[in-house]
Design the sequence.
């Protein structure tokens, strides 16, 4: 074999330590695949003593990320710091020094990917980011290479394990959101501040990358519609089950004649769909291409070694291609940089889907007629309906309605009328519904 490829590792936390361990454990097997040995040249960490305890005395440990990437002998820099501060500075510096970069940092690429990819293309280096979306699932490789013959029609995915764990536990145990969130934090599935996960932001970071690769558009996270699961109640989970559905936090990117839908929100999915039965912290992604049809990819979406699996796959890919001419490599966003499209992201008001609506009403004659009239006046027809018991108040009941497809603006207009009805009391819940066919 030729000389080993030297890799610098920025960060030795969950992802960085997993990458180091797997590289060491499977060193010979990886070298046989890559055609060169892969060696960690140095590690950069704020806590140098902790880092030395992980990598041992044979690997230099430094604490200056921007300075470390200037090492002339380093060919690949793995960014495992996270965030968009020093991580961005180090990645830009690495590119300027002609280093190829591997990263698992979805937030960095969702917010600054266009700038980073442009800088890398100008310098003739690669940015590999398989681990940024869905952990060990090779979704990016599938979109960039495996489905290259297809015109991608839509992508839909459970891409946040924390939210999927919470919704799975709410369904299985009939517990409220707050109680299951506390359990997720105790088990390590949720951070002390779970906002990025439960409010859908993490999923939107990932979906903005998948949409860019699937449709050949720039990364546009700021135009995504983002809703989380904090408003989902155990009552809604139970009602959905009775209607034959499961609730999942779904990321959706869909091509339409008017533009690209890019949205993350709780979604009713028929219980018969495979993706509706993906439970716990597992991720799953559906991709529909015009030639391949619908394909499903499922696996661990996070974790030290599952994510390291994707990081190392990128290191191997970069090792194989680093001596190729830049124009012979797979483009960062699958499409050639000068061929990216300016297809607009569709405003949420123009998105067309069907809905689950739960309202608390007075148990009296004429209520159903009033609800049906409010929907009909907005051009919305009812698909099915469920009426549940009175609960604590014998004079009130829950009405659950599933609608046929309509534009979001029509549904918003209907809701504005529904909440003004004298028979309606309390809050309402609206959840979008997708058949994924």
Sequence:
């Amino acid at each position: 074999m030729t000389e080993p490829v030297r890799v610098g590792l920025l960060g030795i936390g969950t992802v960085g330590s997993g990458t180091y361990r797997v590289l060491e454990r499977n060193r010979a097997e990886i070298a046989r695949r890559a055609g060169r040995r892969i060696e960690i040249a140095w590690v950069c960490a704020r806590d140098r003593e902790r880092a030395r305890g992980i990598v041992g005395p044979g690997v230099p440990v430094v604490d200056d990320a921007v300075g470390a990437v200037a090492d002339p002998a380093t060919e690949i820099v793995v960014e495992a710091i996270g965030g968009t501060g020093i991580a961005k500075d180090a990645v830009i510096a690495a590119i300027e020094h002609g280093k190829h970069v591997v990263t698992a940092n979805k937030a960095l690429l969702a917010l600054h990917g266009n700038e980073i990819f442009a800088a890398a293309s100008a310098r003739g280096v690669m940015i590999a980011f398989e681990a940024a979306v869905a952990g060990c699932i090779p979704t990016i490789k599938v979109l960039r290479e495996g489905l290259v013959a297809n015109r991608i029609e839509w992508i839909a995915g459970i891409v946040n394990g924390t939210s999927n764990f919470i919704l799975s536990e709410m369904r299985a145990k009939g517990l409220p959101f707050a109680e299951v969130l506390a359990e997720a934090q105790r088990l390590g599935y949720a951070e002390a501040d779970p906002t990025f996960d439960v409010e859908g932001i993490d999923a939107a970071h990932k979906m903005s990358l998948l949409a860019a690769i699937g449709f050949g558009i720039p990364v546009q996270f700021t135009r995504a519609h983002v809703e989380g699961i904090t408003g989902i109640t155990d009552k809604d989970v139970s009602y959905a089950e009775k209607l034959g559905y499961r609730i999942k936090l779904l990321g959706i990117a869909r091509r339409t004649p008017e533009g690209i839908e890019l949205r993350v929100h709780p979604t009713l999915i028929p219980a018969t769909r495979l993706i509706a039965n993906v439970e716990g912290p597992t991720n799953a992604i559906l991709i529909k291409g015009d030639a391949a049809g619908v394909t499903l990819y499922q696996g661990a979406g996070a974790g030290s070694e599952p994510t390291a699996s994707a990081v190392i796959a990128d290191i191997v890919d970069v090792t194989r291609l680093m001596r190729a001419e830049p124009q012979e490599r797979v483009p960062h966003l699958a499409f050639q940089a000068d061929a990216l499209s300016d297809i607009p992201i569709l405003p949420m008001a123009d998105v067309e889907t069907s809905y689950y609506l739960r309202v608390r009403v007075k148990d009296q004659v004429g209520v159903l007629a009033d609800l049906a009239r409010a929907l009909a006046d907005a051009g919305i027809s009812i698909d099915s309906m469920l009426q549940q018991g009175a609960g604590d108040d014998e004079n009130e009941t829950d009405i659950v309605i599933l609608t046929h497809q309509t534009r979001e603006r029509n549904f918003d207009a209907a809701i504005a009328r529904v909440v003004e009805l004298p028979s309606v009391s309390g809050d309402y819940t609206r959840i979008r519904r997708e058949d994924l066919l």
User: Anything to note?
Assistant: The mean pLDDT is 94. The longest strand covers residues 245-256. The chain is about 35% helix and 25% strand.
